[in-house]
Amino acid sequence: MTKLWAFKALIFFQVTQDFVFSIINSKAPKSLTDSKTISQVDFITGLPSLIVEAELVIFCAFFHYAYSVTMYQLSDEQKRAGEQYQNYGWRLIYKVFDLRDAFALIRLAFRVRQEVEQHARDMEGQDSSSLTELTPGQRLGSTGSSTQDERKSPTTEELREVSAQ
Known about the structure:
The chain has helices at 2-27, 30-33, 40-66, 76-82, 89-96, 100-132, 136-140, 156-164. By secondary structure, it is mainly alpha-helical. It folds into two domains: 2-74, no CATH class; 100-142 and 151-164, no CATH class. Helix 1 (2-27) packs antiparallel against helix 3 and helix 6 runs antiparallel to helix 8. The longest helix is centred in the last third of the chain and has 33 residues, at 100-132.
């Protein structure tokens, strides 16, 4: 619950401060904003930013309390269990920078594309043999346009669109 209140309080102070400074900036007298020590730009942007930074220093200390690291500390049993992996550090770093996995995935993508193209060629051969058996009137139907219900298998163009996607 402290985590929620820490974050909510920070947001509340930010919104409240923006509201107050928008009122002050709209009603500020010229003598306050046009002095030798502070300009109007300093009053509009600099002063609110300075207050935000001071608030964040306070909330930083509160966040260390709210988001404690004690729950992430290992117990003695967990430390003993982790000792067997103590010398794996450099090996794991090597595995992170190992590019063989990336190249294997690239090869897989090309292999899948080749299989899709081969399947499209196989389907194209089946389409041409089944279409030669039909007369032009049967291929197009009575209205002169093909419908989805009359087609038995996808056309070559449809297969090429699917393989391109």
